[in-house]
Design brief:
The complex is a heterodimer of chains A (113) and B (112). By secondary structure, chain A is mostly beta strands. Helices cover 0% and strands 51% of the residues of chain A. Chain A contains no helices and eleven strands. In chain A, strands 2, 4, 5, 6, 9, 10 and 11 form a seven-stranded mixed beta sheet that branches. The N and C termini of chain A lie far apart (36 Å). In chain A, 35% of the residues are buried. In chain B, 0% of the residues lie in helices and 59% in strands. Chain B is built from no helices and eleven strands. Chain B has strands spanning 3-5, 9-13, 18-25, 29-37, 44-49, 53-57, 60-65, 70-75, 84-92, 100-102, 106-111. The interface between A and B is medium-sized, with 27 and 26 residues.
Chain lengths: 113, 112
C-alpha cells in the first residue's frame, strides 16, 4: 500500500542533544511537509519541499533544519532541542497540483528531558 | 489576512447527529478539507469541498458555502470510535496553492 512512514514513532532526547526524525513516502508525491503539533493546537507548518526546492516558513526557528536527499525521503534535524520543542512532528505529502489533499504519516512524538 | 475558526470542544450522544462548523477568511480560496485526528495519531483525510454544496460519504457529509466562508462536517449515527479531533483546513489560490491552513480542531466526545 502506498503510504507515508515516519521513524521513530517515539523519540526521547536530552536538552541540547541533536535529534533527527525521518519520513519516507511511496506515493511519489512532489511535495513533502514537516509540521509541528502541540496538544490541542493546529499543525504548524515548519517547512516544505516542492521537489528539491526548499521553502522555509518565516517563523520557523533556525534550530530546525531539513534535508530531502531524494523524492522518497525527507529528514527533520533539530540541532539543539529545548523543552519547548517537545511536540508531535508530522510529515505529510501531496502531489503539488491543486486538487489533491495532504497525506500524513503517523507522526513522531518527541520528548525532551 | 488568513483566519480559520472552529469550536474547541463538542459532546454528543452515541447514535445521534452532530454538526461541526468552520468559518474561514482568505483572499483566495481553492478548497476546504476536513481531517479526523485521534489522540496521539496523525490526521486522516475525511472530505474535500471546492464547490458550494454538500458532499456525502457514508455517515460523514461536508458542506461548503464559499460566499459565507463557511463549512460544516456532519456526522450521523455517531459511534464511540468517532471520538476524535476534527480539523478544518483551507487551501489558498495563487502561489503555493498546494499548502493548507489548519484550524485548531474541534475535540468531539461521543458519550453512551
Amino acid at each position: 500500500d502506498a503510504m507515508v512512514i515516519q521513524n521513530p514513532r517515539y523519540q526521547v532526547t536530552q536538552f541540547g542533544k541533536p535529534v533527527t526524525l525521518s519520513c519516507s513516502q511511496t506515493l511519489n508525491h512532489n511535495v513533502m511537509y514537516w509540521y509541528q503539533q502541540k496538544s490541542s493546537q493546529a499543525p504548524k507548518l515548519l517547512f516544505h519541499y516542492y521537489d528539491k526546492d526548499f521553502n522555509n516558513e518565516a517563523d520557523t526557528p533556525d534550530n530546525f533544519q531539513s534535508r530531502r536527499p531524494n523524492t522518497s525521503f525527507c529528514f527533520l534535524d533539530i540541532r539543539s532541542p529545548g523543552l519547548g520543542d517537545a511536540a508531535m512532528y508530522l510529515c505529510a505529502t501531496s502531489r503539488g497540483e491543486t486538487g489533491g489533499g495532504q497525506f500524513f504519516g503517523p507522526g513522531t512524538r518527541l520528548t525532551v528531558l | 489576512g488568513q483566519n480559520i475558526d472552529q469550536p474547541t470542544e463538542m459532546t454528543a450522544t452515541e447514535g445521534a447527529i452532530v454538526q461541526i462548523n468552520c468559518t474561514y477568511q482568505t483572499s483566495g480560496f481553492n478548497g476546504l478539507f476536513w481531517y479526523q485526528q485521534h489522540a496521539g495519531e496523525a490526521p486522516t483525510f475525511l472530505s474535500y469541498n471546492v464547490l458550494d454544496g454538500l458532499e456525502e460519504k457514508g455517515r460523514f457529509s461536508s458542506f461548503l458555502s464559499r460566499s459565507k466562508g463557511y463549512s460544516y462536517l456532519l456526522l450521523k449515527e455517531l459511534q464511540m470510535k468517532d471520538s476524535a479531533s476534527y480539523l478544518c483546513a483551507f487551501r489558498d489560490s495563487g502561489a503555493g496553492s498546494y499548502q493548507l491552513t489548519f484550524g485548531k480542531g474541534t475535540k468531539l466526545s461521543v458519550i453512551p
